[in-house]
Amino acid sequence: MEQERDLADYRARLLDALRVNVGRSACGSSDLIQVFVNERRVGLLDGAGTEAALQVQTSTRIDNVQLRSEDGVLLGGLSAPEYGYRTGRIALSRDTIKLQVHNHTQGGSVNAVYIPAPGLWHRAWQTVTAVVQTRVARPATAVVPGMRAVAFTQVLLAATVIGLATDRMTGWLTPERAPLPVTPTEAPWAAPLAEVAKLEQQLGELARMQAKAVETIQGQQQGMAQLQRTMAKLSSTQEAVASSVLTVKQEMEQRRKGSGRDIDRMTRLLMSKTQTEQEQLEAEIHSLTVANDRLSKEMADLAQNNQDLKKKLKSAGLDVSKATVSDRDKPMVARQGETIQSSQPPQVAEARPNAQPQPFLFWVTFSEGTTQESIDQWLREVQGHKGPISEGWQEVQIVPPSIPPDRFLEQVRGAKIVKAVRTSR
Amino acid sequence: MLTGMQPIFTRDAVMPERATTLGRLEEVVSSAEEFDRVVSQGLPILLDRATGYVKRFLRETGQWSEDMAHEKFVLRWGAEYLERFVVCGRSEVPCRSLFLLDSLVARQLSQPEPFCYHPDLLTPLGRLLDGLVARAVISRDALIALYHHCYGWGPGEVIAVTGLNESESQRIYKNFRRWRDSGWQRTMDEIGMTETEVKELIGQQQRHRQRLNSEAERIIRFAQAHYRKSEPDHYPCLSRSQWKEMFAQGYGCDYRIWHLALCLDCLQTAWDLGRNGDSTIEKPHVELHMRP
What ipTM, to 2 d.p.? Predict the structure, then answer.
């Protein structure tokens, strides 16, 4: 029975402790705050009135972050997400601790920042600054910033005057106002002096606030000016980029057009070259055909001559045999005659072309301004003979060259005065 | 570990008021303020639930006995988990409070050695020492007080042995004072030590001083070995030469305070390195002090 009561008391004490929780700590605001990650102490936050920060990285996933006072009381904590960020603000008696926990694939990290409670003056200044910033941040940008400062000052002055008037009115209307600690002789002067002193103090504060407000406005103006400069620079940069883009486009267009013209020019050049070559080829074929006809004709003439020679030889042999006296010699003479007859015609046939080589014919045109002397000199160099001129083409006959005709014609084309060469009319 | 557990509380088994509170705990809370309100109303239910899970864990691991010491043990750890839930659960909203507690307790009990359990720690002496060392892990006041409870040292001896400088010394005095003022009593309340039990222990010590101190040393070593794992990973045991270097160069102030308080062997290795010629301090041996 006693044990059960003891157990019930213990349970009740634990529940009470859970209800009180943070208030149980006997530590002051200047004491250190312990930071625990996954129930392990990882560092301290020095909360001695100044901002302090603690960063911890772990190689394992973070499950929770706890803040404890030096006497072990759990002040606050944060459950970490499975993956990603979570932030929380732990409010202590006056101060705040900002916690940020981040879990990623390779562990986690904790960032704890101790933010001390701001002082009274700091809070007042923040309020004033916020009011000023709100006014400055309004979209009425047409108003000159200096005018805003004046307007703000006027508003402040008006508020102060209203406050003073209210103070006076409430003072007049309140019957149980506490008497001033002055003697009756001082009374006529004491009240106005006190009022003046109070007014002076308030005006002094107002002047300080105004000065700070002006400073803030100037800061804002400077910021705006800097912003405008940045914007101008940005816009000029943007324009430069746009013009560059345009230039690049134009260049690309020109290149496209230029490449088209080049292709056309190349095509025309190739076509003209091909046409010239075709003409030259046709001229060569024509000259070959002419030469072939001439050769055929000469072959026919040669065959005719050969037939004539055979007939003459045959008649000559008959004459010789008739004139021979001895019979034994007849067959021998006849055989010799046959031998001569059979061997002679080829000698005659081969001897004729050697005696009269076929001339090589070609036609040339000369460059404009070429003198007759230059032409004659060139003809002497190639050992050629002039033929008739037909439609500007000069016929030239030469001894057949020792090099192939094509190469010879190339050499002819390479002469300075020669404009074109062909081998047919 | 808790997978497949049957609900500990059913609606039929509880009173209507309790059932209403339980219903609220099962509903979704969408803000931290609502979480605080619902949880503060349902603290008894949540404590019973967390305690029930710890009890079930001990049963399933063959560590449970039907006695007052085990009941207090599960209450203590149930309250410990519940405190973490109350503080950290606010950041989990929107959530269902009851099930969030279930998941938190499940995570805790799924860890290896979720708490320091040994039959010797369930005796009044074991509960006292276990409570003190466990508190030292989360409280610097309790950590510094360990030097007093285990070896009978005051602030001066602690400062001399750990070789602290002037600024650190002031904190030691503050730790001692706060522990005397409130820390010790709060710890006794949280581990369920009654004034009667403390007085009985003091009586035993007066009658059998040597035997009690010897028993205390055995328990202290066991508890220290368990709770030292909660130290930062970079605080392992060191050799005498390493300790000597640390004391000589004056770094590792936090290291010295934390590790030497939680490691009797290292303290006996390095006890004379930071004394600055103070020869009045003897080599530390366990001399138990029940009160601060």
Answer: 0.89
